[in-house]
Each structure stands twice: as structure tokens, then as C-alpha cells.
Fold each of these.
Amino acid sequence: MTAAAAANARAQIARRNKVRQFVTPEGVDLELRIASAGLRLGALVIDVCLIQLILVGFTLLMIWVFGASESSIAISIWMLGAFLLRTFWFIGFELGQRAATPGKRLVGIRVVARDGGRLTADAVVARNLIRELEIFLPLTFMGFSAAEDTASWWTMLAGFVWSLTLSLFLLFNRDRMRMGDLIAGTWVVMAERVRLDRDIAASAEAVAGALTFSDAELAVYGIFELQELERVIRAGDARTMREVADTIRAKIGRPVAEEDDVFLLSYYRQLKARLERKLLFGKRREDKYASD
Amino acid sequence: MIGSAPPIAIETPAFSTGRFRAEREADWIAFDALLTRLEKKGAKALSSDELLQLPLLYRATLSSLSIARATSLDKALLEHLEALSIRGYFLIYGVRQSRLDRLKRFFLHDWPAAVRSVWKETVVIALILLLGTLTSWSLVSHNPEWYYNFVPEELAGGRDPRATAEFLRGTIGHGKAAGEQEGALHMFATYLFTHNSQVSIMSFALGFAFGVPTMMLEYYQGISLGAMLAVFTSKGLGVEFGGWLFIHGTTELFAAALSGAAGLRIGAAVVFPGARARLQAAADAGRTAGKVMVGVIIMLLVAGLLEGFGRQLVADTLLRYAIGTLMLLFWLGYYYLPRRGGA
């Protein structure tokens, strides 16, 4: 039990470590969450794929337009286009209203200024030009080691590892800042869109002959368990609901007498009412291990 | 009457999170809809009534968030309000200017101001470039063998101490070989532009390592320039080579120096943050450097055009010098002439 309690506490601390205070002029803390390295990588991969796709399309277009004439204008337009695409894809999108490239939008993250001010164009430019270094320096070293005659293989390996420490800089700090973020004074934070789901505690289809639970039966769980229960009910997967319902029944010592969803919903409502009432009196019970 | 009232009061307490949500939900939905339109189509898509509504709905949402955090345990609700407030905050306090205004401000004010503010670093980098040039020039003039250490074979394209004066004259656009490349001028210009931009982006990006790699890169650029210069001077083509270089070189080398200066600014800020925190100093320097770098890329575009078209089409040495000097004067005036309203 204590091991589980410790694990739970650790998970909460980990979650809190990702949250940064961000107070608006109205005095409300928005509690921004730092985006994880995995999400950042995912966004980058999506963006690189999109750039490559567009580049292929652009190349085909150039071949189609200029193919017959073999004009060198086509080649110079292609070179210019490729350069602009690669350099300004990130800058252009991050200057927009949502401060995120298509990849970032898909995974639900965005760039913000660390000081809470607005995200300026120069910051966006700085953070993205540094990207050239972070991605292409390791690639260059790999290219050199392929050439092999300029220096020994080991020197190149050392250079590659050295340049990787630059590229992986974001793994070594708490705020998950790239070199570019550090220099531009920016953060990448979570910015998903969350749909407003229905209010399951107040929905009208009140259960006929609703179950009532005694205070002792409700006292076994805290807020963490309540919100997990909410997640299960919203997901509505029958197998999971059966498992959860059985666990709760065993815990509070009730026989299996009613449908799982009816049981869970009434238990959820009454537990939520109880915990919210306590919350109004200033008592916040984080999880079942905390004292009631 | 009196007897029946209390039980009802107990059944429906004055505050419940369900009622809270029912009362405020319409505001959140309206705010969400406005934000979505704002994100998709910009401020022009909203009528003036809706624009006035926007801050009201924003504040209503923030206040709902505060209340919900203190009273509600409905995770879906809390997360929705948080996400909505974050979106709203960044849209309302985010960009306050149109893109056109920002562009105008960048060219009229921000760009020259940023370049002006890195003048010390520019001088340092220019001196390093000069030092590199002088070093290799004096070495190669005394002993041509040094040339092969400085300029790689494939880059030289035959322009080395063994070449005849006639061949060298041809490579800088006088005599027989001049007309060869004309068909592919624009290709050449584009190649030069993209290549040089990449090099200067590198030189900027390497700056954060205390500026040392930046200075090395700039020194190396000076070295190959000086070596080439020494070869041409020894064959009595110094003036012509100068013109060949000058027409675009004033713009290109200026841009190279600025990109180095931008890198050096970041390196210097990391090493000597002064009274600010190191991170803050790096962020401040990075923003200035970012502006300079956009300018550098534009300058390199101009240099690429001058190099690709101007140099190949204008063969007269005097005219080449004139264009080069004009460009230099233009950049110097644009950056360093004092002007009004420079806040």
C-alpha cells in the first residue's frame, strides 16, 4: 500500500514539474505545461515529411512545366524554392496566429515567449535558424565520415557525438528547451483543443430508483480516483467498466445487484458531490491515501 | 409555507457545480466560436460588435476557470476551460499589428537598428576577416606553395599560382573565356545565394559556442580571399581582380561580417551576461541577432544577383568598382545614418 502511495505521489510530482506558472494580467495562472520531447520529435517528423512531400510535388511540377525545354530557369527556380521551403516553412507558420507549424498543430503544441510577452518575429527567426545547426551539423559529420579521406574515422565519430549533444540539448534541461529556444527566449508548451464534453454528473437521465451510498462507502476514494472513474465512464468501454465496477463493489462490500453503468454513474455522482462539498470547505483530498 | 421551505433549500443548495456550468456554458461556447473564426480568418472576419464582445467573453472564461478550479472536480470541464483560456490569452495578447505593419517596421526601423546595435561585433569580425586576408596574402606572396594549403583544389578551378595570366584574366570575365557561362547566369546566381545563405546561417548558429567557431569560420573566409588575391596580384591582375570581387563583394562580405557579428553577439552574451541572468542575456542577444540574420539573407540575395548577373554582364573594371562602391555606400547609409523616431 505504501509503495503504491509513494508511486502515486511521484506521478503527481512529475506532473507538477511539467507545469509552469504563467500569470495573465488578469491575475489568473494559466499553468502552461511543457511539451514532452517525444511530442516535439513527432511534430518535427511530421513537418519534415510534409516538406519532403511538397518538395516532390514541386519537383514534379517543375519537370512538367519545363521538362521539354530543359531550361536552366527551371533549375534555378527549383533551387530557390527548395531553399525558401526549407528555411521559411517553420518561420512562416510560427509567425501565424497559432504559433505552430502543421506538425505542431497536429500534436497540439505551440511556441510561446518565455517571459509571457508576445512572440516576436525575431525570436521565431532566431529559434528556427539555430535548427539548421542542430539538424545539419550531425548530418554533416556523418557525410564527412562517409568521405573518410579527410580525417580519421574516430575524429568524425567524436565530432558526431559532440554535435549530437547540441541537437539533444533539450533532453538535458527541465524546460525541454532546444538550443534555439534558449537563444530566442521561447518555450514549447501544450496547446491542445479540448472539446467540452457533456456533464455526466448532471445529465437528465436520472436513474430510476437511484442507488444511495452511505458516507462510509464514499469515504474510501479521493480526487485522483474520482477523475479516473470519470475517464472510464466517458470512454464507455464495457469491459473496463465491468472491471472498475467490480473493484469498487469489492472495496465497499456490495453485491452485484445492478447494471455496471448505473452503478458507476450513481457512485460517481455521489462521490463527486461529497468531494466537492469538502472542497468548498477548503478540504482537498488528493487521492485515497490522503486522510479524509 | 414556512414549514415546507427548508427541505427544498436542502435538496437544491445555492451553489452547485452543475448549475455553475449551466449558467456559464453559453459564454464558453460563444468564445470558442469567436476564437475559431479569429484563428481561421483573422480579425477582419469579426464585426465590431463581436470584437467588443471578445475581451468580455475572455474575462468571463478566465473567471469561470478560477471558480471551476476552486469548486469543480470535473476533469473534462477543467481541461476544456484551461485550453480555452490559453488559446484566448495568446490570441488577445498576441499579435497586435498586421503583417504589413510589421514588415514596414522591420525595414524602416528594426533591421537597421539591430545592425547598428551590433556595430562592435561587426568591427571585430571585419578585423578578423582582414587579418585572415593579410595573413594568407603575405604568406602566398612570399611563397606561392602556401596557396595549396589554403584553397582546396576543386574550389580553385585552376586559379592557382601555376596558371597563366591569360587564363586568370579569362576567369574574371575579360577575354575569351568570359562568355562561356552566360546561358546559366540565373542558375549560378541562385546557387551562390543558397550556398552563401547556408554558410552565414551556420556562422550565426555556431555563435553560441562562445563565438569561437564563428570567428574561425570568418578567419578562414579571409584566408581563401587573401590567397586568391595574392595569386592575381603576382600576375599583375590585382586591379581587375579587385573589380571582379568588388561588384558583389562589398555586399557579400558585409553580410558575412554581419552574420558573424550576430553569432558573436550571442556568444558574448553567454560569456559576459552582465547584470542580467545568463538565460535572459542569451534570449535578448538572440532576438537582436535574429533580426540581423533576416537582413543578412536579404543582403545575400542582392549579392547573389550582383554576382550572378551584374558581374557577368558588366565587364568594365571601372564600372564594377563603381557599382560595388555604390552598394557599400547604400548599406552604410541605410544602417548607420542617424534618423528620426529611432526609439
Amino acid sequence: MSVNVLLFPGSNCDHDVIHCYENLFNQKVEVIWHRESELKNPDVVIVPGGFSFGDYLRTGAMAKVSPVMGAARKFAAAGGPVLGICNGFQILCEAGLLPGVLLQNISMKFLSRFVRIKVESSSTPFTGAARKGDIIHCPIAHFEGNYFADGATIERLEGEGQVVFRYCGEQGQVDAENREWNPNGAMRAIAGITNDKRNVVGLMPHPERAVEKVVGFCGGESGRVVFASSVAG
Amino acid sequence: MKVQVLIRLKAGVLDVQGKAVERSLTGLGFDDVNAVRIGRLIEMEVGASNLDKAKQEVTKMCQELLVNPIIESYEIREAK
């Protein structure tokens, strides 16, 4: 399997993803610079986290017009699995590959801490190896993670089962108003979603930072399932 | 021709910056302040010979990059 990791000026979580696929899953990884207009025969495309283009204008806005996004769009349109993490999620929303947008955190603070997210759908290429209700304990590190979409879009996402991850408590409890569980204020405590074809997934938390016990701290390796799913699929 | 694009957050979209600034203003003693909203002003020079043509061109820029229509509205005007 070949994984293409897209690299923008300001990406900074690319190496975590590369390490994960190469060393934990023994997969071939190609890094694709944002000026490239072709991908390198990927089975999976990852848009990693970071601060592409210094978050100028709006998070992900400049990245969405990079040439590589044209290729990513084509890959996604053909049903190829695409995962956006953190800034990658923001980029996919800006690019229109996922609905909605990430607003500033309700606390008006940059949040760098662990959260729990519950798998709400195992019918995506990045959650196929998980069960509904499984909890991933991993970090968030963002200023704009407050998921927002208009009412009709939210109802469609809920109705079609396109909410993939939701912020939750230790036992999987969900309460969008609980700032301990849902610190950025995301609507319906949405941490991650998928498109209607279920091949594009985006999430704000960083599962790639919780794939090994030695560096996962309290998160252990619960984030591994996201990448394991894409390899198994 | 010099034009301005005034970008605003749509009504109902949470503006945390606006809220923070409002709180600070209140803290300074400006008790009468309400509904502070923060937008963005982009100025640029374009080659178009009249405002209509400039607006057409800049509208495309807004659609393709400058504005996120889910949360923002915009207005294009001539800059003095």
C-alpha cells in the first residue's frame, strides 16, 4: 500500500503520520509537496496538521488553492480514502471536500490538551477496524476547532450517519455544553465527520500522537485504530 | 483602481474575538457597548477601468479564496 502525505509550508504533523505508517504498519509513504499537481499513485492520502501558510486569511484557505489539492480532489472524487487531521480537516472543509467550517474555540484560547473522542461510525476507511462506541484518547492542539455548519447540514450529517467522532467523557457520555469533554464548543460535540460517499474523513484531534505507549502518555495507543483501519481496508 | 473588500461574519455566527473585545471595552468603563463584531478589510489595486468591471473581478476572488460563504458575507467598494 502507498500512502501520500501532503506537505504545505507550515505543516508540522507530517512526520508523526509518516512514522506511524512506516514504522508501525510497514507501509510505503510518499511526501507530496503542495506545488506538485500529481500524486504518486496513492492508496490513501493524508492531509496532516500544522499551520499551513501561517493560517493567513482563514485556516486552510490558502492551502485549498495549492496545486496538490486539485490532485487530491480528483483522488477523492474517484472514491480514494482521504484523511485530514487538525489543519488537514480545516483544509478539507475549505476545499469543500467536507461540509462546514472550524470556528475559533469558544474559550477564545488555543487548546493543547488530551480529549476523548467516541467512534460514531465504523463505516469509513479510517474507522473500519474500530467499533461504534470505541473511545480514542488523544491530544488536541488548535485555536480553530469549533465545528460549525448550518442547521440543514448538521441534520443531514446526523441523519446520514456522517458524524464519525464526537467529543465525550470517560464513559463515552456526550454533552456538547460540557467544556471538559467538548472544550472547543463544537456543535453537537462533533470532532470528526465524513462526506456523503464516506471516503473523506476529517477530525480535529490528533490520533497520530497516540499510536505508541511510549509517547502516547495517558492516550496510550488508542489512536492507532485510525491508521490500522486504512491499512486493513 | 483601488478597491476594498469588507468581509463580515454572518449574523448568528459566533464571533469570539468580538466577544473578547466587547468584554475588554466594558472593563474599561464603556458600559454602553453591545454586539461587537470583528470583520476584515482587504484593500487592493486592480487593473479594471471602472467599478463594475472591478467588482466582477473581485467577486470571483471572493468566491475562490477571500471569503468563506458558510460564515462570511462581503461587500466590494471603491477605495478613496
